[in-house]
Amino acid sequence: MTTWVALVHHPVVDRAGEVITTAVTNLDVHDIARSARTYGIAGYFVVTPIEAQRTLVERILSHWKDGPGARRVPERSEALGRVQVVDSIEEAVARVVAAEGRAPLTIVTSARRGPRTSGYREVAHELGDRPGLLLFGTGHGLAPSVMEAADRVLAPIEPGSDYNHLSVRAAVAITLDRLFGGFD
Asked: In the CATH scheme, what architecture does the domain 3-159+168-180 have?
């Protein structure tokens, strides 16, 4: 089956746990698209309800898919060709359903371990049987409503140190490698 990735900018939380909307960054769009292409991810959704942010991402994508960037760096054009900009998680799920013909297993990520945590091997096995949508939060993580609605909560990346504040780009790359990379 196929797996999709969503980088969620709303609903996410800030340091105080308040639900907010974060800004899209150019680096996240590029780097996550490259990781998604490397690991064979079917598509990558940038989720933001802010129209100006969606327009900005579409302009970036146009430059790299159809403009001068596509001619200069065709590999990046190929990776960014998998990016779709949507205004909500629900729209991302609907697009996966339209492409796959069935609802995806929704899998959320968090830097904190919780009671519903599933391991990487378990989730990788499940993704062999049905489409999946991996949701990554910006800011200080996905809102509680998103966490509670998900089918699975993936185990956090635990670096073995007292510092655990990876960029979302790094977290996506590590997660994809743990799910789909070699286990040697």
From this structure: 3-Layer(aba) Sandwich (3.40)
